Amino acid sequence: MRRREFLILTGGLILTAGSAREALAQLPKITKKDTYRVGFAQTESNNPWRIAQTKSMQDEAKKRGWQLVYTDAAGSAAKQVADVNSMIAQKVDAIFLAPREEKPLIPAVMQAKRAGIPVILLDRSVDPSLAKAGEDYVTFIGSDFIEEGRRAGEWLVKTMNGKANIIELQGTTGSSPANDRRKGFADFIKDHAGMKIVASQSGDFARDKGRQVAETLLQANPTATAIYAHNDEMAIGAIAALEAAGKKPGTDVTIVSIDGTRDALQAIIDGKMGATVECSPFFGPIAFDTLVRFGGGETIPPKIINQDRFFDRANAKQFVAEAY
């Protein structure tokens, strides 16, 4: 039987199927330049963490004299895909992407790759079974979300002497921080029989939704003694829910969270919250440095992990002034 050879037209070149696969397996490159025109596709701007991240990116672009094409998906994965496609159409040199969810943003990453535009993922990743660092995108820069969950679980086990009925306020369903923070926490507490998650529901990383979900779960689980929130915004919402229910946060119910915002550190100082694991939003310097290194021909590791701190009553006062 005669072997067929399929032809693919791409960028004015005609490739055989075999050579097309080889081309698409390679990471897009960029020319080394003094300044770049880059896109930053933000997922949303409805909380202090995202606002601080955006400001860090904008400040760094201004400092270096780079042009930053900024978009805000307003919490919509579909809009974020469209935002990336718009950047591709504008022929930016590279795209920084903070994916709202792991799977829906795969088409955007692949479309940028086909257009020859390298993508660097910030603070959230995409499904590793569908896209690979070093092949489909340059790298992921962010925190170790599993480690964040583990550290929160470790603190809660120690603080509660290994016994607690826990309400878990999850982040955005399908996002890598929510998936991994849940796993890290669950993996740690599973060896402590007295630590039980009695209810778990998404608060979408938002303060008011976190409050609403906490109200519902507290009513359904009056014996809850602890709340684990996937971010500080939901934890602050949970504090409001506890106070509305006539409970004393920090005394009747112990709260541990992740992010390290100023409001969270103040809540720790006020005794309403127990601890928070830092998740730094200041991506500008490291993101832009990484692109410069990539443009210079350096091999970039598949993950660049931020080193985050831990805040509790012992050090919250020391760091609250510099928190965002």
TrEMBL record:
Does this UniProt record's set of keywords contain Endoplasmic reticulum? Answer: no
Record-linked SUPFAM superfamilies:
Periplasmic binding protein-like I
**Mainly localized where?**
other
Specify whether Zinc is a keyword of the entry: no
Q: Which GO terms describe its cellular component?
A: cell envelope
Question: Coiled-coil stretches, from where to where?
Answer: none
Tell me where in or outside the cell this protein is found. Answer: Cell envelope
Question: Residues of the signal sequence?
Answer: none
Annotated ranges, domain Periplasmic binding protein? 38-277
Q: Which UniProt keywords apply?
A: Signal
* GO molecular function (one): carbohydrate binding
Task: Give the family, as the similarity comment puts it.
Answer: Belongs to the bacterial solute-binding protein 2 family.
Q: What is the protein name for this chain?
A: ABC transporter substrate-binding protein
- Record the organism: Salinarimonas soli
